[in-house]
Amino acid sequence: MNNLLFIGYGHMTQAILKGMRAFLNPQQNIIIAGRNPANIEPFLKQEGLDFIKLKACNTICVDDMVVFLTLKPYAFNQFTYTGVANAVLSALAGVSIATLKQHLTANVFVRFMPNIAASMGLSATTMYLEPANTPQTPHLVTLLECFGSVVSVDKEHLIDASMATNGSSLAFLSLVAQGLIDAGVREGLSYKQAFRLVQRSFEGFASLLTTQSPQDITTAICTPGGASIEGLSVLEDRGVRGALMQACHAAVNKYR
């Protein structure tokens, strides 16, 4: 799929392009379109992607392109789209395929929910296709795997639901990380020491999750009557688990 069109040039577009960097080359026809795509020029130069073409326009031709919709959801219907796209891949939270079809024509529609770790090639991405099985399906999965791992879902509403697990979750985990760093400083560590220890702990935790459940990890750490279970009891008493679930629910409901 050598004809790629990105509509939007914000943080998510940049994260995806950075994650895909090793798979992009000047022989491909890659375009970024929008009202002022020149805003992304410094990023493209920095990442060695300045072979990507920029088009400032209000009417966007999608003919024979694989189109990434990575702009803000409210801005989607401010453009006019012409032609028939090879495929449309939409990262627009809360914008259904039925709504996309009112503005765009394409052979395949894909909704996907990535996260900002796409910039490291580590996005956890959910994917829903309509129609579900076409000759293009393996190629579209491979395309999304350029910037992370892909979990396919069989119901469209689960794309918005996955904001709880992967879309917004890194923001919530960042709050946890900052809280742990602050706790380390409170107990006497320097900020640099606390940051490094929390950073490495998150890396270790991610590795543990590849073979163990969160409950298994908790059980292995918490000895009866020990310090860790004492701390966990405070978190449960303060309703941290419930607050996290409510935060995720609020994020999902924002676009339902």
Automatic annotation (TrEMBL):
GO terms for biological process: L-proline biosynthetic process. Keywords: Amino-acid biosynthesis, Cytoplasm, NADP, Oxidoreductase, Proline biosynthesis. GO terms for molecular function: pyrroline-5-carboxylate reductase activity. Its EC number is 1.5.1.2. Transmembrane segments: none annotated. Its main location: cytoplasm. Residues 156-255 form the Pyrroline-5-carboxylate reductase dimerisation domain. Pfam families: F420_oxidored, P5CR_dimer. It is found in: Cytoplasm. It catalyses: L-proline + NAD(+) = (S)-1-pyrroline-5-carboxylate + NADH + 2 H(+); L-proline + NADP(+) = (S)-1-pyrroline-5-carboxylate + NADPH + 2 H(+). Pathway: Amino-acid biosynthesis; L-proline biosynthesis; L-proline from L-glutamate 5-semialdehyde: step 1/1. It is an enzyme of class 1 (oxidoreductase). Residues 6-80 form the Pyrroline-5-carboxylate reductase catalytic N-terminal domain. GO terms for cellular component: cytoplasm. NADP(+) binds at residues 7-12. Catalyzes the reduction of 1-pyrroline-5-carboxylate (PCA) to L-proline. NCBIfam families: proC. Belongs to the pyrroline-5-carboxylate reductase family. This is Pyrroline-5-carboxylate reductase. It comes from Helicobacter suis. The lineage of its organism: Bacteria, Pseudomonadati, Campylobacterota, Epsilonproteobacteria, Campylobacterales.
